[in-house]
Amino acid sequence: MNPLIIPIFLPNLGCRQRCLFCNQRISAEKVPSAPFVQNFIEDSIKELPSNGTREKQIAFYGGSFTAVNREDQIRYLEAARPFLASGLIDSIRISTRPDALDKEALTLLKEYGVKTVEIGAQSMIDEVLSLSQRGHSVADILAATSRLKQWGFEVGLQLMIGLPGDTYELFLETVDRIIDLRPDFLRIHPTLVLRGSPLETLWETGRYLPLSLEETIRWLKKGLLTLERSGIRVARIGLQPTQDWDKHFLAGPYHPALHQCVDSQIAFDMAEHLLRDNSEGSHALFLCHPKEVSNLRGQRNGNILKLREQFQLEEVFVQGLEEIPRGSLFLHTPSGYASIKRKDLVC
Questions:
Q1: Residue 226 burial class via C-beta count within 10 angstroms: exposed 0-12, middle 13-18, buried 19 and up
Q2: Which residues neighbour 77 within 8 Å (Cβ) at sequence distance 6 or greater?
Q3: How many CB atoms lie under 10 A from the CB of residue 175?
Q4: How far apart are CA 117 and CA 96, in angstroms?
Q5: Among 9, 143, 266, 274, which residue's Cβ finds the most Cβ atoms within 10 Å?
Q6: Number of H helices, E strands in the chain
Q7: For the whole model, what pTM was predicted?
Q8: Contact 307, 316 (CB under 8 A)
Q9: Which of 181, 188, 190, 182 is nearest to 163 (CA)?
Q10: What mean pLDDT is predicted for residues 42-63?
Q11: Residue 148, number of CB atoms within 10 A of its CB
Q12: What span, in angstroms and rounded, lies between the C-alpha atoms of 176 and 181?
């Protein structure tokens, strides 16, 4: 279960150069002071559920935390320390670059109770990293992940798809290499063209073409199923929209519920597979877990409409039953039920 997060954004803080896709002013206009952080945490705790078993974490996002000068790192960690000591917060997480995790940095993180370190990997292809002006290599990602595991940190990797030079095949190669690393979780974001980012110029001059939403879903569908079969947890797909999002977004496969779009396409493929082998009559009845009914139906019943048209059905019914395992889909047939599991879907 994902923890409850109190996010502290440190836009561009500690970044050694500007990546091609970056405009982190979209998350916060200025770098917060340590006193502001302490007040923000105190106010945010009041909004968190007082009961339940979900872990509560303070998260320093946006910049490269361990590349910030040591004094500023300590100021931020000191602001969080009282809440950790009192038990109001369970742990701390930070995000950083893979080439900013030496022994001194890890020692400081351990001293202040940091549990989770998210690495901005973005790709496992050196050419893609170079074209995106990341300033680090795949070797740095491998070394950082190994070092964090040796030190006992929970490790998350952040990936992007559709960067300059990226292809469907290279993305799947990245997924395979990520699986070999065995991180604790992943975040996957599509590459978007943001106003004020260096990528804006490439897009305006026709030297960069972002993925379409349909391409993005196709890439993510294959990648997500591959990761799930390997036991790698995907904590999030897509970006969290902000209040001023419309002022910054220019082009690319943005959708406010991208993960659901991918899950819905997977559900459609499962239903299509069952109907292709078992379609009889003018009606179809599917059974799934109640929490997966909306994915099967699709946005605005889009999946239902497509299934009706494709298989010339008068009606498609979906029933949610608690006893149906998550990730399984059943189709009523004259001889009983045909079924398919999400993990067995071939795409």
A1: middle
A2: 92, 108, 112, 114
A3: 23
A4: 7
A5: 266
A6: 12, 13
A7: 0.91
A8: yes
A9: 190
A10: 87
A11: 22
A12: 9
Stretch among 32-36, 211-215, 245-249, 330-334 having the lowest mean pLDDT: 245-249
> 7 pairs with which residues across the strands?
59
CA–CA gap between residue 158 and residue 312 (Å, rounded): 42
Q: Among 187, 183, 186, 189, which Cα is nearest to 166's?
A: 189
Domains of the chain as residue ranges with CATH? 4-256 (3.20.20.70), 262-344 (3.30.2320)
How far lies 70's CA from each of 14, 34, 63, 75, in Å? 10, 14, 14, 9
Average pLDDT over residues 107-130: 95
Q: How far apart are CA 120 and CA 134, in angstroms?
A: 9
Whole-angstrom Cα distance, residue 347 to residue 331? 20
For 46-165, strand residue ranges (E) read 56-61, 91-96, 114-122, 154-161
3-class DSSP assignment, residue 339: strand
